[in-house]
Amino acid sequence: MARPHIEFVQTQNVDWQDQRDGTQIKRLNWDAQDDEETFLIRYPAGFTRDDLGPEDRAEEYFVLDGSITIGGLVRGYHAYGFTPRGESAGTRASEAGATMIVFRYGRSDPNSVIGVSEALVVDALDAPWDMRPSDDRIAHLRLTRKVLRLGPNDSSRTFLLLGLPHGMPAHKEMPAEIHDHFEEMFMLQGEMWTPEGLIRPGAYFYRPPEIVHGPHVSVGGFFQIMRAGANYVRTTWTNPVPLPIGQTYAPKIPDGTPESWTREYKAPPAF
């Protein structure tokens, strides 16, 4: 079994689930065979938890709001961390509460185990932007990146991706993309037009390898956290197709998904 293709869901439509330790989660994607998964987790104010010992799966986290102390280290807004399988993540406590997105690796992943991967903490606010130009075929998005982690053996990349406003090409058609590795995204800010509709803050997708996707354009610009199944994104391109501006929401959702996940999200007014 592999992780299902989701493109895309607005996580505002996913219900919070209460956990025994007082936290709440929104599970966004899960491989039941290997327990690879992605979820949002909300820690309540006053939360404390003892060290649970060595992790049975590697874990990446990114703080979306609030502040949490992990292993004695305070992790605030847009802090990032990685704990390999077999290493302890330490105690956890949050005085005012916190929300994070968590990416857990499968138990059989050979590149996420202690001794192959090392624990890592990054304050994304201080990390440098990589402003080198992208492929000419997506130059209209004017992309820049902050790489948070490169996995060993060309296994993964976790990074922040920024596209400037007015990211519109001069022509009405452009090619779509195909990668030989997975891609995963959570939208932090902004918006982006896709063939599945308009992605807004809180949007999530997971694409297995070889999925045709795009083209993408953005009037207002966007800010995302992304993961890829390689250190550097490898792309092949299709023949040009029409731009998706104004596309009706039509998500690709696996069978059995709650109906609420497929509701079109009505964002609150900006003014």
TrEMBL record:
Q: Which SUPFAM superfamilies match?
A: RmlC-like cupins
Q: Which residues form the ChrR-like cupin domain?
A: 8-103, 142-223
Q: Name the InterPro entries for this protein.
A: ChrR-like_cupin_dom, RmlC-like_jellyroll, RmlC_Cupin_sf
Protein name (database record): ChrR-like cupin domain-containing protein
Q: Which organism is it from?
A: Sphingomonas panacis
